[in-house]
Automatic annotation (TrEMBL):
<keyword id="KW-0227">DNA damage</keyword>
<dbReference type="GO" id="GO:0006310">
    <property type="term" value="P:DNA recombination"/>
</dbReference>
<keyword id="KW-0233">DNA recombination</keyword>
<dbReference type="GO" id="GO:0016787">
    <property type="term" value="F:hydrolase activity"/>
</dbReference>
<dbReference type="GO" id="GO:0000723">
    <property type="term" value="P:telomere maintenance"/>
</dbReference>
<comment type="similarity">
    <text>Belongs to the helicase family.</text>
</comment>
<feature type="domain" description="DNA helicase Pif1-like DEAD-box helicase">
    <location>
        <begin position="24"/>
        <end position="129"/>
    </location>
</feature>
<dbReference type="InterPro" id="IPR027417">
    <property type="entry name" value="P-loop_NTPase"/>
</dbReference>
<keyword id="KW-0547">Nucleotide-binding</keyword>
<dbReference type="GO" id="GO:0006281">
    <property type="term" value="P:DNA repair"/>
</dbReference>
<dbReference type="GO" id="GO:0005524">
    <property type="term" value="F:ATP binding"/>
</dbReference>
<keyword id="KW-0378">Hydrolase</keyword>
<protein>
    <recommendedName>
        <fullName>ATP-dependent DNA helicase</fullName>
        <ecNumber>5.6.2.3</ecNumber>
    </recommendedName>
</protein>
<dbReference type="GO" id="GO:0043139">
    <property type="term" value="F:5'-3' DNA helicase activity"/>
</dbReference>
<dbReference type="Pfam" id="PF05970">
    <property type="entry name" value="PIF1"/>
</dbReference>
<dbReference type="InterPro" id="IPR010285">
    <property type="entry name" value="DNA_helicase_pif1-like_DEAD"/>
</dbReference>
<keyword id="KW-0067">ATP-binding</keyword>
């Protein structure tokens, strides 16, 4: 059994190993509640597996891991549990007092690590460019100086200003049509996707319009979309299976009575505010935290925030095989490349 915090990894492992491996997201495998009013249940079916591998543990929060541990402790017969992850990669994100922030990963939780049998192995298997491997190994632990970064990114920057205009972004997208755009924030991701729709389909007649409490979204035939962001891969409702939109159907209700189709869903938060949690958006841009562990062909990286969460930039930079496969939307700043434990790190 293979469990991952993001659906794209579960899907890829299932494709690689076929029927010999059961791959699910952590939320699906352990039935982790996603809403406060969701009924608690224990996934006793996990006891039929000999080995349970939990991947990308750097993205698993202490709260979610406590749920995983509680599930395993209720079983009379338990599988061997192998937890893999990199402490220098993307930490888990959570909403704290209405703001998205990083929280402690299980890999940095002494309560767990002091009781686990640990094996340490680090090797960069994705990248095949020796010079770029040296750069990635450097920024894992050390915050680089700006002069060093400026020399490194020469010839790889699309826009020289910190606040790019719509025209500048569009020109960069047109010039790099076969690149996937990586962003830090969801706002920048949405900006890119909306820009593509606006410029590419501005003369086209929409096949329908979907109205939310915030805006009216025009749906066109032709743009590339991911199959919506759901947590259950075995039901074929998962994220980042790309597809092309052809027609619009009325939303339906699946067996579990939960909305599971790609259309805007409005969620009311505890403070009374509302936000769209699963909007039907195109897939030209994606946030870094959604694709940790993915192998991409070419990346147009946009670190759109002056202060990037620790290790997030490293994850975005390490998704390609060679340096020539990555372009930067705006110039990289030294302050954006924070390694793990920045207070103990030095600049060089």
């Amino acid at each position: 059994m293979f469990a991952s915090p993001i659906a794209i990894l579960a899907r890829k492992y299932s494709e690689i190993f076929g029927k010999g491996l059961r791959a699910e997201t952590i939320h699906s495998a352990f039935k982790v509640p996603i809403d406060d009013n969701q009924q608690y249940s224990t996934s006793y079916s996990l006891n039929k597996y000999n080995v349970l591998v939990i991947d990308e543990a750097s993205m698993i929060s202490r709260e979610v891991f406590n749920f995983i541990a509680a599930t395993l402790n209720r079983m009379m017969l338990r599988p061997v549990v192998v937890i893999t992850g990199d402490r220098c990669q993307q930490p888990p994100l959570a909403t704290v007092q209405g703001r998205t922030t990083t929280v402690t990963s299980v890999l940095n939780d002494d309560t767990f690590t002091k009781n686990a049998v640990k094996f340490s192995l680090y090797h960069q298997l994705r990248c095949i460019d020796p010079a770029y491997i040296n750069f990635l190994n450097h920024i894992r632990y050390v915050q680089p100086l700006q002069d060093y970064l400026d020399r490194f990114q020469t010839g790889h920057v699309c826009i020289t200003t910190d606040q790019p205009s719509q025209d500048q972004l569009w020109n960069a997208l047109v010039e790099h049509r076969d690149y996937v755009v990586y962003t830090v924030s969801r706002a920048a991701c949405s900006r890119i996707n909306n820009l593509v729709l606006t410029r590419s389909f501005q003369e086209a007649v929409p096949i329908c319009s979907t109205t939310t409490c915030f805006q009216c979204i025009r749906q066109h035939e032709g743009p590339c979309h991911p199959k919506q962001r759901q947590r259950r891969w075995s039901c074929e409702r998962t994220n980042w299976n790309s597809g092309v939109k052809r027609e619009q159907h009325r939303p339906a209700t699946p067996e579990n009575r939960q909305l599971a189709f790609a259309h805007p869903v409005t969620k009311v938060l505890k403070d009374g505010s509302a936000r769209v949690v699963y909007p039907f958006t195109p897939g030209y841009a994606v946030t870094i935290c959604k694709c940790q562990g993915d192998n991409l062909g070419k990346v147009l990286l946009w670190l759109d925030c002056p202060l990037v969460p620790e290790r997030t930039a490293y994850v975005g930079l390490s998704q390609v095989k060679r340096f020539n496969d990555i372009i930067f939307m705006t110039s990289l700043l030294s302050s954006q490349l924070k390694p793990v434990n920045i207070h103990a790190a030095t600049q060089t």
